[in-house]
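pls design
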């Protein structure tokens, strides 16, 4: 990988990091700022049906799952940036096979560690 390509992927990683961090912050701040009644859109504090409570719970679980996914993605992006700075010649090399990761894959997932 050339220096120009590494700089391109560093910019891509920084863009992805900013986007992911923004999504994570929005997800967690929206969840923290609303009370249960606001999140569910209920008119009263008490759900009128058990199914309403189930719907509320699954919504909370989806939000938590998305926040976890975004946190893991952010950690992967940070790890890729660290790899790029510590050993730039090894960035873009598959950890399983030792072959270069296809540039098309890195364009889509710039923090990829493997060819697959």
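designed seq:
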């Amino acid at each position: 990988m050339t220096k120009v390509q590494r700089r391109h992927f560093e910019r891509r990683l920084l863009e992805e990091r900013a986007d992911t961090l923004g999504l994570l912050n929005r997800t967690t701040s929206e969840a923290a700022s609303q009370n249960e009644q606001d999140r569910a859109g209920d008119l009263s504090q008490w759900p009128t049906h058990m199914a309403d409570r189930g719907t509320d719970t699954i919504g909370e679980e989806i939000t938590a799952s998305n926040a976890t996914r975004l946190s893991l993605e952010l950690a992967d992006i940070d790890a890729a940036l660290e790899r790029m700075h510590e050993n730039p010649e090894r960035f873009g090399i598959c950890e399983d096979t030792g072959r270069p990761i296809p540039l098309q894959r890195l364009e889509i997932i710039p923090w990829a560690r493997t060819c697959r």
